[in-house]
Design goal:
The chain has three domains: 72 residues, no CATH class; 84 residues, no CATH class; 144 residues, no CATH class. It is mainly alpha-helical. The relative contact order is 0.06. It is globular and about 90 Å long. The chain has 22 helices and no strands. Helices cover 57% and strands 0% of the residues.
């Protein structure tokens, strides 16, 4: 006869034996929660935790008032003591930086919540555990920050981002749909790319043995380090050569489970080439905007708009750039960098021709056309104003390019001499 937890409690009590502490704690909760949250109790009873006698208090603690207030979070610190290997792998991966890359210090916000401090500070420790900030997060309302940002970025400290809360059925975490909750949309549509790639189509028609899924390539052998084999940061910028070479060897090894190593390396190197070409297009657009800023032609200029949460009244074109409180040309650049560059590069690495070309590369190049056209319009508008000194403007633009490293000292001197000769 299969012995249920309640029956075990009754029998052990009847013969005077001590109850396992976890099971005893669990039963003190189950009596009430079987009525109030029956689904959670049913899931726990069928889980590995329930069958091993790991009770509610082991994860939730015993302070019922804090639990009801939502203050007793079941986060990674609760899971780590029993799952040290998975925790170490997770923390070494990009998922281990998920919260910090999507967060920002809220101490100066009028509607800040005090419990947010715990994401970057340990209890009683003023030194932050990370200096990473996210300007876009800081511009959102608290509701949007929770729903639209933290729902995904909590993956750093919340195991139930991928696993369920009370069930321990690994089929849930092994389902690629669990990745789609976050890895989809205009800025990183890996889910859509995989679904419509040859890998995804084979997976749907013939299963994992013929068509690999997210976990096959990014969590081989069940590792929680989802960053194995990744050669660039989340913004698509390549890692240093040594780190990149090591990661490439890791990915070739993963691909070699189905493909010849030489074939895998060639395919990945094609992705590298697409990345380099795309980055050059992106840099050309960025240089156009930096030049307009030097000339004072952005509309509005950074000092005539609400301050950037991290940089104040400075132009920002890096990973902290905003999609609000900017000029129109910066809005075009945001789409180019955050959406179209990412689709081009990640589409290439995920072997999806439509995302690499039409959704990515074509849009990237048309973005550059739009940005250059807008730059010409702004410059022509300035020329139409009375008292415009053309040579002085060109010299200022030239100096700005030199100071940003876009021109060598030799080229700067040559172009400067040419402009001065023209002005004489």
């Amino acid at each position: 006869m299969k012995m249920t937890a309640p029956l075990m409690v009754t029998l052990l009590a009847a013969i005077g034996l001590a109850l396992p502490s976890g099971l005893l704690a669990a039963e003190s909760c189950v009596g009430c929660h079987a009525e109030k949250t029956p689904a959670a109790v049913a899931q726990w009873r069928q889980s590995a935790h329930g069958k091993a006698g790991i009770g509610c208090e082991s994860c939730h603690g015993s302070d019922h008032d804090r639990i009801l207030k939502g203050e007793a979070k079941v986060d990674l610190t609760r899971c780590a003591p029993c799952h040290p290997k998975a925790t170490k792998e997770h923390q070494a991966s990009r998922h281990g930086l998920g919260l910090h890359t999507g967060w920002g210090c809220t101490r100066n916000l009028p509607d800040r919540k005090k419990d947010e401090c715990r994401f970057c500070h340990r209890q009683g420790d003023e030194a932050p555990s990370t200096l990473v900030q996210c300007a876009r997060f800081l511009k959102q309302s608290s509701e949007m920050a929770h729903v639209g940002c933290n729902s995904c970025h909590m993956v750093e400290g919340s195991c139930d981002s991928c696993h369920s809360k009370h069930s321990t059925d690994l089929a849930i975490a092994r389902d690629p749909a669990s990745c789609a909750k976050c890895h989809m949309g205009p800025d990183h549509p890996q889910w859509e790319m995989w679904q419509t790639s040859e890998h995804g189509i084979l997976n749907k028609s013939a299963g994992r043995k013929l068509g690999p899924d997210c976990q096959s390539c990014h969590m081989p052998a069940g590792t929680h380090n989802v960053s194995s084999g990744i050669t660039m940061n989340s913004g698509g910028v390549p890692y240093p050569a040594g780190q990149r070479a090591k990661a490439r060897d890791e990915m070739v090894k993963i691909c070699s489970g189905c493909h010849a190593p030489s074939f895998a390396r060639r395919e990945l190197e094609q992705g590298d080439a697409v990345r380099s070409q795309s980055l050059a297009i992106l840099k050309e657009a960025e240089e156009t905007i930096l030049d307009l800023n030097t000339l004072g032609l952005l509309d509005p200029m950074p000092d005539h708009r609400p301050p950037h949460p991290l940089s104040g009244f400075q132009l920002v074109t890096d990973a902290q750039m905003l999609y609000e409180d900017t000029s129109h040309i910066e809005r075009l650049f945001f789409k180019m960098k955050k959406y179209d560059y990412a689709k081009t590069v990640k589409g290439a690495y995920h072997q999806n021709p439509a995302y690499a070309h039409w959704y990515g590369n074509a849009e990237l190049k048309m973005d550059l056309i739009d940005i250059k056209s807008e730059a010409r319009r702004l410059k022509e508008r300035k020329k139409a104003e009375p008292g415009q000194a053309g040579i002085e403007e060109e010299l200022r633009s030239l100096k700005g390019r030199f100071e940003r490293g876009a021109l060598s000292a030799g080229d700067y001197a040559k172009e400067k001499a040419r402009l001065l000769d023209r002005g004489n």
